[in-house]
Amino acid sequence: MLTSRLFLICASIVSFCIETSQATCNVTHVGDTENLLLRGTILTSNGALCDSHVLVESGKITYVGSGHDLGCMLGQKNVTVVDCIGSVISPGFINTHEHIGYSTITPLKDIGERTNQRHDWRVGARNFTRRPAPVNGSEYDATKWGELRHIFSGTTSIVGGEMVPGLARNLDFASGLEDGLFAPTATFDVFPLNDASGIQRLGNCDYGAAAITQDEAGRLYRYLAHVGEGVDAVAENEFQCLSNSTFDVTPLTDGGGLSTDIIAPNLALIHASSLTNEDFDLVAARGAMVVWSPRSNVFLYGKTLNVTYLLDAGITVALGTDWLPSGSATMGREAVCGRDVTQKDYDIGIAPQDIWEMMTINAAKVAGFEHQLGSLDVGKLADIVVFSGDVQQGDAFAQAVYAPSDNLQLVLRGGKILVAGEGLDILATEGCEAVLWGSVTKSICVTDAVNSTFAEFEAVLGGVYPAILPGIPDGEPTCVSTR
Ligand SMILES: [Zn+2]
């Protein structure tokens, strides 16, 4: 009770705190590193809590508040105190859309062609140029490399279609959930209509014979499915076939060919960039969710959806990077793209807190882990990131979501330190190594999961697209719409 009362007092809602020139965190007391007390600006759905505290014990959050009542709670505990005044403390980002196995690839070159539906570029349909994306080396190593890239930009959980143990939490694999998290998991589907061969339809649902059915989808805990990726009626036809049982009632002779209706609260539509406002009204009415990947939409199709329409309709929207070839390399760059494209194309500003929710609590809801992840609440897992740097746009949420990875001070997954910034190297002990991060040095602690040092692994991969990306990533696909 006391904690919630303090929340109310502290949440005399603000989105920014005093500006400070302090750029880093400092360890002011070294105690047991299993128990960390973080001090800084805490980001919550009720606003930013200035000069507040988060206590982490045995991998979980055990206190959040102003700290006035902390003394009695700490008792004889010997916690390590990390003072990050001026920095923002956020739940670790959750990336709800990645094809993480494509991470040893460089982004696709922009050939100036914008397609209308994904099979146009996937298989070269309708006379478009096929854009292959061959993975360098093994997919396992690429996945490991991709998870490192996301951890090194503040993402602690991923729905990515592939996984390796020990790095980011993989919310679509029971064996990839990591400490403290348990099944059921999300189901990730690239081809709900069984159309991997490149089937495009208009006015009927004659896709593959093994397309998803209402019964099958309804049995899933969370179903994250690519639907309506593209910008034309052929792309939108996919939504018709999955939202209206009477749209096509004529079966194919070899099976399949029928429309169904899977629009329900356990569904998150990935992309949905071709849907009409009327379609989104149905999505909202049914309580289904949407995963938004604006950069990849803009690069491949020339535009993305107007996310503010979805937000106004009450749809839970989460952000996802899609994949390295046409999407953002980090969640921070995806957030920047989402902000910019919405401002430029639709002349509407998105509040940084709305973007932050797409990267945290909304993402947790999409994947079905909102009771364990996605916010800094007592009892949740201590997946926490800390960003220093200037207060951007006078907004503490902006300081987190638009931050370059240079500003990353701390990444914790279940209280375990994965990244420790300048001045925090004292926290980085076993299995940690110092790495060059732009012009500074940070400590990373991934040796146990990588099975070698990061430097050795990087050397083995040999010249691949980097996993540590200060500033704007090289060759980043455009986020400027062309239609
Ligand atoms: Zn995808």
From TrEMBL:
The keyword S-adenosyl-L-methionine does not apply. InterPro entries: Amidohydro-rel, Metal-dep_hydrolase_composite, Metal_Hydrolase, MTA/SAH_deaminase. Keywords: Hydrolase, Signal. The keyword Signal applies. Residues 266-417 form the Amidohydrolase-related domain. Residues 1-23 form the signal peptide. It comes from the Eukaryota. GO terms for molecular function: hydrolase activity, acting on carbon-nitrogen (but not peptide) bonds. Pfam families: Amidohydro_1 (PF01979). Coiled coil: none annotated. This is Metallo-dependent hydrolase. It comes from Glarea lozoyensis (strain ATCC 20868 / MF5171).
